[in-house]
């Protein structure tokens, strides 16, 4: 069964305007398809164009060449701008910059008020959204009293209240402690599985990508590699040559293989433990 | 430079409804030349702690000794000594302000009246340590860079000052894997060559394990645990309670030990990835024929 695509880039190029009016080319002929309901990870070196890609997805930027279609709408269609922004929510790095309300409730209400949603419907959506991120007990809490992971979850609730089709996490876990990172990733996976929200996770942590359906690797404004986590992470040397890395288990297996100790391909630590233990015990 | 905290507390917004006790009677000693990793949950007080080192924050009570300088609530750090302490902020993009990258990095050294030629060579060197190509980036506006590029420029600006104490607040957040490694290796090299005292705040247990010789674990404005990485990473349950974790290496060793008979156990001291790999290679390699 071929799934419906939610978002498509067709031959998209983009340049920024430099200080002296010169053009700074950033994306070069990018073709990309995001299937509805999928969990996609985007990796790439600093400056490879990941955030630019994200801003093009919700029409904060417009392509210089080519077309971007989101939920059937061309992002160049100004009349659909607000519709597109509602469909595509974004969460950024710094948890302290994401929250605008004085309480968690106010914060989630903010976008709805701007949309002119009526009070009864608003109440319902706020409760649903906070429930879906597991923060319903913090309705009246002051955001500055929350941990970094909780703040990011509240930011995601603000988006969920808008009933989005797609949530883009642009390094949303970069400033979080290990538990906060885990909370946000667990939440993203759950929203994807249980509520059918399409997730695009832009990250520098290869470990976050092992559970995705699809991995896209950007390099200097172009798509270098894409495919399943297995397909992408088995290309260890190719990734390392463009400044990227692979998950821990893949790295350890690769280091052993380099010295002639061959194990089957693994993505997860549990599989590595199993294979190495077996080898140790049969040796 | 030896650093001592003696019962240091810090209260934000004292006397306002937002009053917050962010540090509670912290006492600790950091010997000169050490490389200290600071880990702890978001909001545990890591940034508050280190901002006391360059006079950005003053203690509400208690005493800090930085080499021969004493700092208390009424005694601030003398301006001339601030150059000894290089602090890279948690959001270093806020530290950038000049029109070009080269001007930004050379601002500090110029401000302390170093000769122009020396400033240029330091600027070039510092940008290279953080993995940026001097010629390609020197005339660009720091505000038109990607997140990770801005972070590198801000770190270069602090390195160019050649401080005696280097304090880095999550310097690698947002950097790509090669950038992370290159910058930390660069910092580690400078740390050793110049005999610096270095404090690294990080959420990465792997970074803490690889570079620090001593760890401070912050929780709720206090130091909850301290010691060499090997000892700290043995406290798996406590670390998890504090929203932290252990390096993947440590999890791997304990998982393997659960599946292996006692006489095949791996040592718990394998908390660095290279050491783990060396150990596995030794155990798995077929002994050479004589
Ligand atoms: N406002 C801007 N004006 C000019 N150039 C820009 C601007 N923003 C970004 N760039 C340039 O565009 C390129 C891509 O930037 P982008 O922010 O998309 O990278 P990224 O992959 O998100 O990087 P990072 O991992 O550091 O966040 C970089 O070379 C950057 O210097
Ligand atoms: N300017 C401020 N005014 C009031 N409270 C503050 C201020 N800055 C920090 N705090 C509070 O002080 C506590 C410690 O904050 P701090 O920034 O030192 O934590 P941190 O350990 O660096 O966290 P993170 O890992 O998120 O960077 C937190 O509860 C925070 O909300
Ligand atoms: Mg980015
Ligand atoms: Mg901090």
TrEMBL record, chain A:
Record flagged with keyword Transferase: no
GO cellular component, one term: ATP-binding cassette (ABC) transporter complex
Membrane topology: Peripheral membrane protein
InterPro entries associated with the record: AAA+_ATPase (IPR003593), ABC_transporter-like_ATP-bd (IPR003439), ABC_transporter-like_CS (IPR017871), ABC_transpr_CbiO/EcfA_su (IPR015856), ECF_ABC_transporter_ATP-bd (IPR050095), EcfA_1 (IPR030947), P-loop_NTPase (IPR027417)
NCBIfam families reported in the protein's UniProt record: ECF_ATPase_1, PRK13648.1
Swiss-Prot/TrEMBL keywords: ATP-binding, Cell membrane, Membrane, Nucleotide-binding, Translocase, Transport
Main location: membrane
Coiled coil ranges: none
The species this protein was found in: Brevibacillus centrosporus
Subcellular location: Cell membrane
Keyword Transcription regulation part of the UniProt annotation: no
Superkingdom assignment: Bacteria
Entry's Gene Ontology molecular function annotations: ATP binding; ATP hydrolysis activity; ATPase-coupled transmembrane transporter activity; cobalt ion transmembrane transporter activity
Official protein name in the record: Energy-coupling factor transport system ATP-binding protein
Record domain ABC transporter: where: 7-245
Protein family according to the UniProt entry: Belongs to the ABC transporter superfamily.
């Amino acid at each position: 069964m071929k799934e419906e695509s939610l978002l498509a880039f067709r031959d998209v190029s983009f340049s920024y305007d430099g200080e002296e009016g010169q053009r700074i080319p950033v994306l070069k002929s990018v073709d990309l398809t995001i299937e509805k309901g999928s969990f996609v990870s985007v990796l790439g070196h600093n400056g490879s164009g990941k955030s630019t890609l994200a801003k093009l997805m919700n029409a904060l930027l417009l392509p210089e060449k080519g077309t971007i279609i989101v939920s059937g709408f061309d992002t160049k269609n100004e009349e659909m701008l607000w519709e597109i922004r509602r469909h595509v929510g974004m969460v950024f790095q710094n948890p302290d910059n994401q929250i605008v309300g004085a309480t968690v409730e106010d914060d989630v209400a903010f976008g709805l008020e701007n949309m002119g949603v009526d009070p009864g419907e608003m109440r319902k959506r706020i409760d649903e959204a906070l429930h879906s991120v597991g923060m319903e007990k913090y309705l009246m809490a002051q955001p500055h009293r929350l941990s970094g992971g909780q703040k990011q979850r509240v930011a995601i609730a603000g988006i969920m209240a808008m009933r989005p089709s797609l949530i883009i996490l642009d390094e949303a876990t970069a400033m979080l402690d290990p538990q906060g990172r885990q909370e946000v990733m667990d939440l993203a996976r759950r929203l994807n599985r249980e509520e059918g929200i399409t997730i695009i996770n832009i990250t520098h942590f290869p470990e976050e990508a092992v559970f995705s359906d699809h991995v896209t690797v950007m390099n200097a404004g172009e798509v270098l590699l894409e495919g399943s986590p297995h397909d992408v992470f088995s290309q260890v040397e190719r990734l390392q040559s463009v400044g990227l890395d692979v998950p821990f288990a893949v790295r350890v297996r690769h280091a052993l293989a380099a010295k002639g100790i061959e194990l089957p391909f693994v993505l997860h630590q549990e599989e590595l433990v199993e294979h190495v233990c077996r080898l140790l015990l049969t040796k | 430079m030896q650093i001592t905290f003696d019962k240091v507390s810090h209260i934000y917004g004292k006397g306002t409804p937002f009053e917050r006790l962010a540090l509670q009677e912290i006492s600790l000693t950091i010997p000169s030349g050490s490389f200290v990793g600071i880990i702890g949950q978001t909001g545990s007080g890591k940034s508050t702690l280190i901002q006391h080192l360059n006079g950005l924050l003053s203690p509400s009570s208690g005493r800090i000794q930085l080499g021969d300088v004493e700092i208390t609530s009424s005694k601030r750090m003398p301006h001339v000594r601030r150059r000894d302490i290089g602090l890279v902020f948690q959001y270093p993009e806020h530290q950038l302000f000049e029109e070009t990258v080269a001007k930004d990095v050379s601002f500090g050294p110029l401000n302390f009246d170093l000769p122009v030629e020396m400033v240029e060579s330091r600027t070039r060197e510092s940008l290279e340590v953080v993995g940026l190509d001097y010629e390609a980036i020197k005339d660009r506006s720091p505000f038109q860079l990607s997140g990770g590029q801005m972070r590198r420029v801000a770190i270069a600006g602090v390195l160019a000052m050649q401080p005696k104490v280097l304090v880095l607040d999550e310097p690698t957040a947002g950097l790509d894997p090669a950038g992370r490694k290159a910058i930390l290796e660069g910092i580690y090299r400078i740390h050793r060559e110049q005999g610096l005292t270095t404090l690294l705040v990080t959420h990465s247990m792997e970074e803490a394990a690889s570079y620090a010789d001593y760890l401070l674990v912050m929780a709720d404005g206090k130091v909850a645990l301290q010691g060499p990485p090997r000892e700290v990473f043995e406290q798996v349950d406590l670390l998890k309670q504090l929203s932290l974790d252990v390096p993947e290496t440590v999890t791997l060793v304990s998982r393997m030990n659960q599946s292996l008979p006692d006489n095949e156990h791996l040592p718990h001291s394998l908390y660095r990835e290279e050491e783990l790999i060396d150990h596995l290679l030794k155990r798995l390699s077929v002994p050479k024929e004589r």
